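Task 17 of the worksheet. Students: predict the tertiary structure of the chain below and write it out as structure tokens. Keep your answer in the requested format; marks are given for formatting as well as content.
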Amino acid sequence: MNIPVVYEDDCLIILDKPSGLLTVPTPKNESRTLTSILNEEGPAAGKIRFYPCHRLDRETSGLIIYAKSRPVQEQVMDLFRQHKVKKTYIAFVQKRINQPGGRIRASIEGKQAVTGFEVLERRCDFSVVKVSPETGRTNQIRIHFKGIGHPLVGETKFAFRKDYALRHKRLCLHAFSLDFTHPVTGKRVQLQADLPEDLDKFLASHK
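Model answer:
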């Protein structure tokens, strides 16, 4: 297993997930997922069972938390439900966003959803944005930025690729940081994962 481990203790392991991997199987029953790789090919395979505490889309890269037992998994999931895990993402969105930042409020499937954002950089035809979702609806970041007219670069599910000249082979979304209180030790955990190589190359080639 060559997936980077960013943090590990007796209860948790936090990985830097590459783009292209599902967290868990979908109804199509894909055999190779991040969870299966960790449990079948990782250094502790056969000794410890790892349980995902949340999910990232297949195309999204970045930080993801696994627990080493069911009880700890439930404790971390409770932190997410109580909005006690601060997650930030880096996203590349189509076109220049003129305001420095703000909050997007738009319900998703009838449920309240709020996304905070800060513009880090503006390029000629896209913006680099730090995103802080305040709720955890499915596809929230993708839906909210499409809703304000700035879909993510590489988006194909919620926007038509043909409508935008700027393209990338995958969704330009990276789970950049995590900040939470460890449910067992009580210590604060603060982690960051640098942009992966493909997103760095995209920035270098699109000034």
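Marker's comment: The CA atoms of residues 145 and 151 lie 5 Å apart. The two ends are 35 Å apart (CA to CA).
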